[in-house]
Amino acid sequence: MASINKATDPRRSILAVGSLAFDSIRTPAGKADRILGGSANYFSISASFFTNLKLVGIVGQDFPREHLDVLSKRGIDLEGLEIAKGETFHWVGEYGTDLNEAKTLSTCLNVFEHFNPKLPGNYVDSRYVFLGNIVPALQRSVYNQLKKPVLVALDSMNFWITGQRESLLETLKIVDLLTINEGEAYLLSEQSNILDAAKTIRKMGPKALIIKRGEYGALLFTDNGIFSAPALPLSTVKDPTGAGDTFAGGVMGYLAHEDAGEAIFKDDSILRRAVIYGSVMASFTVEDFGFTNLLRTTAKAAEERYQQFLKMTRF
Ligand code: AMP
């Protein structure tokens, strides 16, 4: 029985940087205006099922304090979160019938434009690090302040791949594990075949690569070969926003919980299980708008979905 519990050892905690946002979203199932979102939010809520976190990010004075309490109560340390004068990051996006492809209508960086993260003293020893979707130079700036990270994961998106390609390529050199959408993998690699894309991207830095394929699951590429994980077929999918970051939260949460470190590159069985935990967590996010459903999920419900995965893939 897979049992999901939280590691309390501070050496297994994760430092995460990324966006905290207001999102305005339209999907075939409806719309939501200025709901809470952002890569760091989805990631850390998801990873908090497995371990404690240290968050690095910035919000404006318009960001609700009650939500910060929600994060704190889940073991997410907010000492590295700056509350600045100005407005919180705002993303406006929509999805057509293909829920795997978000169309960005507007990105207002707002307070992120002048963000210069300075890690609190007790953050610099972090061993597990997630550089979430945000300006690539900020991802590097956070990394450069760390003493000795053992596993660095990164997520990015088309906005940065096309808008700040050179800077993103620089950041990729320091990354051990990259999680990226299929469409973005083609964009980044400038290839049109998934094997070629994976080969090209792994040469850019990441030893392990996970290509997310939305409702079709995820592919893991390492020196040991390829692992293909399905997504859980769901009867209700309302809003795929945040699925990728929630997925990354499950993956990194599990790896940090197991203190997997360098070992993942010798034998990728831990990484394979991590991909399933990522898929389990993402399955909750997409069932409702924002992270409403993820917040009401229990470890027991997540364990049950893990069992469903085992049953679905055994033959
Ligand atoms: P995903 O998991 O890929 O669906 O990411 C969803 C989250 O990414 C949303 O909650 C957005 O607020 C956030 N987001 C969208 N565009 C950007 C961007 N350019 N930089 C950072 N975060 C973004």
What's the topology here?
Elements: E1 14-17, E2 21-27, E3 30-37, H1 39-47, E4 53-60, H2 65-73, E5 76-77, E6 81-84, E7 89-95, E8 102-108, E9 128-131, H3 136-144, E10 151-155, H4 158-163, H5 165-172, E11 177-181, H6 182-189, H7 194-203, E12 208-212, E13 218-222, E14 225-229, H8 243-257, H9 269-285, H10 292-296, H11 299-313
Helix pairs in contact: 1-8, 3-5, 6-7, 8-9, 9-11
Bound molecules: adenosine monophosphate.
How is this structure best described in words?
It is a single chain. The chain is of the alpha/beta class and 315 residues long. The protein has one domain (14-313): Ribokinase (UDP-N-acetylmuramoyl-L-alanine:D-glutamate ligase), CATH 3.40.1190. The chain contains eleven helices and 14 strands. Strands 1, 4, 5, 6, 9, 10, 11, 12, 13 and 14 form a ten-stranded mixed beta sheet that branches. Helix 1 packs parallel to helix 8 (243-257) and helix 6 packs across helix 7 (194-203). The mean pLDDT is 96. The chain binds adenosine monophosphate (AMP). Adenosine monophosphate binds next to strand 2, helix 1 and helix 8.
